[in-house]
Amino acid sequence: AINKAENLSASLRYNGDINVDFNLPKGAIELPIEPTKDFDTYHDWQYKEMTEEIENAIRILKMTDEEVVSTSTYNAIARYL
User: Fold this and answer.
1) CA contacts within 13 A on the Cβ side of 59
2) Strand, coil or helix: 26
3) Residue 63 structural domain
4) Is the pTM here over 0.85, yes or no?
5) Is residue 31 part of a domain?
6) Helix (H, G, I), strand (E, B) or coil at 10
7) Could you give the number of structural domains in the chain?
């Protein structure tokens, strides 16, 4: 593929590095498939709000010795599991 390179240029940088630039025609090399997004992104305020809700729900669960928890507490935690 390198034998198909066009516009080859090399330059010596001030720190001693050598910079090499070249262009390859389309299809000269096969690029890997771009990964797909398999995650959600959150704004900072959304993330902080979610972590605060989880921390509060866990704090409530730690305070009780009961084997049964209220539905609202269960729902607050279950949506993150």
Assistant:
1) 6
2) coil
3) 2-26+40-78
4) no
5) no
6) strand
7) 1
